[in-house]
Amino acid sequence: MPEPLIITVILNTNRCEDTLACLDSLQNSVYPNHKTIVLDNASTDGSVEAIQDRFPQVQVIRLSENLGYAGNNNVGIEAAMRRAADWVLVLNEDTILAPDCIDRLIDAAGTDERIGILGPTVYHFDEPDVIQSAGGSLTPVWNSRHLGQNEPDRGQYNRPRPVEWISGCAILVKRQVIEQIGALDARFFYYWEETDWCTRARKRGWKILHVPAAHIWHKGVQRNYAPSPNVTYYNTRNRFLFLANNRAPLHAWFYALGRTSLTLISWSVRPKWRPMQPHRDAMWQGARDFFSRRWGIRPS
Fold first, then answer.
1. Which of 7, 23, 116, 280 could bridge to 85 as Cys pair (CB 3.0-4.6 Å)?
2. Where are the alpha helices (DSSP H) in the chain?
3. Which strand (E) or helix (H) includes residue 296?
4. What is the pLDDT along the chain (300 residues), one digit of tens a residue?
């Protein structure tokens, strides 16, 4: 029986060297039935030419419009589906995969037809044995969190196990899941989209697995990562969108609204939080845009 066809989708925006390094790691994959699509978001650093020169077998799609992480990746997901992918791996361009990563993910799917989404252990690139994400969970008030974040890997995650969501930097999704629930929700643009995707899949009965033996290293989101006001904007707006999309219980809404209100007040009136005023403005704008049903890129 032939191995399932895996098509990896990588979004690149002026990250030529990172994307080439990611493609190098994919080229070293031991998994036999694999193809790659690179989506280029109007790069001006010679990315397209460099990719086509070094990896002529890779399909490059030039995007005509910036639809964000969610909408841009949907272009690649749709292209992968047209090419009859059995599984689609949505992968950040600043990741490096272990040679057996894809093999380990597919092995973990086994014969359980209800396993629909899988993810590897994600490590910090600059701390190769420190976990960035071992899958994700939702708290009782529907906050999202990465499991194992910033923990040294001591073998504490030693077998595939169900989780509630998978980090969007490397998420493997079964064709039937996409056919049933659709691709990423483009309204999110950036942030919370993978949590929403996984939650919608779980509500339809699909299992989501973290596979500890599958390893990748991610250059983004280091320990000292300090989010920009843009992240505050998308996190605020999209958290509410996530709650609405998935019919969250009232206590989750009360918590989110209360926490947002208290933070806005604190960042407005307490002198020690004056440096947070750009974040305050972004949070207010994000909340306002949710209730105004304004999606996509943050208005300037």
1. 7
2. 16-27, 47-54, 68-82, 101-109, 175-181, 193-203, 229-245, 250-269, 277-291
3. none
4. 679 999 999 999 999 999 999 999 999 999 999 999 999 999 999 999 999 999 999 999 999 899 999 999 999 999 999 999 999 999 999 999 999 999 999 999 998 999 999 999 999 999 999 999 999 999 999 999 999 999 999 999 999 999 999 999 999 999 999 999 999 999 999 999 999 999 999 999 999 999 999 999 999 877 777 789 999 999 999 999 999 999 999 999 999 999 999 999 999 988 887 888 999 999 999 999 999 999 999 998
Are 116 and 207 within 8 A, CB to CB? yes
CA 92/CA 187 separation, integer angstroms:
19
Strands 115-124 and 170-174: antiparallel
Evaluate whether 60 touches 289 at the Cβ level (below 8 Å): no
d(C-alpha 216, C-alpha 180), whole Å: 28
Q: Is 48 exposed, middle or buried (0-12, 13-18, 19+ CB in 10 A)?
A: middle
Give this prediction's pTM. Answer: 0.94
Tokens 């929700």 belong to: 185
